[in-house]
Amino acid sequence: MSALPTVANADQNDADLSRARPAENTPDAEVSEFRAGWPAVLACFAMAIFVWGFGFYGQPVYLAELQRANGWSTALVSASITFYYVFGAACLLWVSALFSRVDLRILLCGGVCVMALGAIGVANARHPVMLFACSAVLGIGWAATSSTAISTALARWFDRKRGLAISLALNGASLAGVFVAPLLVRLSAVYGLAASVTGLSLVMLAMLLPLLIFGLASRAPVPDGETHAVASGSGRAPDGPANWRDAMRSLHFWSIAVPFALGFGAQVGFLMHQVALLLPALGAEQTAVALMAGSFAAFAGRVALGFVIDRVNQRLTTALSIGSQALALVAIIIWPRSPQVLFPAVIVFGLSVGNLITLPATIIQHEFPARAFSLIMGMTVATGQFFYAFFPAIVGVVHDLTGGYGAPLALCVALQIIAAVLLLRPPRRDNG
């Protein structure tokens, strides 16, 4: 357990979470941040397309194609997906320690190569042992390259406009759902899953690795002292959790981790069953249109919130975002066969899908000291990922027991209401 991240042992790279900046929050300071950091945003945007394309939106494609090619059961392939998320969540606790010890470019380039290797292995799996082994490799790559990695990387360039920077970079995740997954489906129909994943992975790596190497090469000078948010009285304590044990004892940490875990669980549970829910009412063609509309809504919602995210109450904004998803699910429960309701409900739900991934980083930035950012971010994402790894299966079990999606969607709504209430009632600042 000694490999877990600590603040006390962090080296000079920890200081990269602070940057040289004018004393006041001026437009010139914000422009200066983007002038120094836009190549990093572009590199992380491209990485998000790759990572979410093969690590999230590609999973349903793997499931369908591996079933067809190998005759495997849905339960077997679904179990490998759950294993992938759980193993990746465990790896997050150790990977976050590497951000203070390993050159950022080495870590991220290595991560995307490991993810490509895992995806290619999964696509070529012909035995369950190989499937689970390659899912573990894929989980390591996901831990080293997904939202924790992107948020921590951009924290080295951005403070005042960190929320906007992370939001813009993570829009790559939304585009992955629009482009990468459909492309995998089309290529797999012609060339097979193994050849399609292998070829597309190599092509994307050839474009992505130079962007990461050169986009993350520059580094702004680092002053002594805390970040701007602390200096300007954001309410963050001058000290914070020194290690994962301190964080586990902190009510402040759990006030973020628990509601986001509940929100992620409800969100992923619905998204993984969305096609099965929409098909009976909309048919294949209209379901495809609805899915694309939801993906574009996620993109638009993240862009729109990105421009104001650093100036609003992030806890209240998150609670409202989760609440809007709950209202969309309530509409689906009441009118499950009405296209006039399903289309706008999918769009309303989608508007907050991307923001729920972005908002934890902005809350953590404002409520914890800079040197604890990667620790708290990694543990928050790991907690949420461990929970939502099981939730698609939970939704499926409740569906089978009740004979429909009304009860599992009601469960999702209940979790979202609890999450919103918890976010609006943060604990008093503790010693963590």
From TrEMBL:
PROSITE patterns: MFS (PS50850). Residues 41-431 form the Major facilitator superfamily (MFS) profile domain. The keyword Transmembrane applies. It comes from the Bacteria. SUPFAM superfamilies: MFS general substrate transporter (SSF103473). Keywords: Membrane, Transmembrane, Transmembrane helix. The chain crosses the membrane at residues 36-55, 75-99, 106-123, 129-151, 163-185, 191-214, 253-276, 288-309, 316-335, 341-363, 375-399, 405-424. Signal peptide: none annotated. Pfam families: MFS_1. This is MFS transporter. It comes from Camelimonas fluminis. The lineage of its organism: Bacteria, Pseudomonadati, Pseudomonadota, Alphaproteobacteria, Hyphomicrobiales.
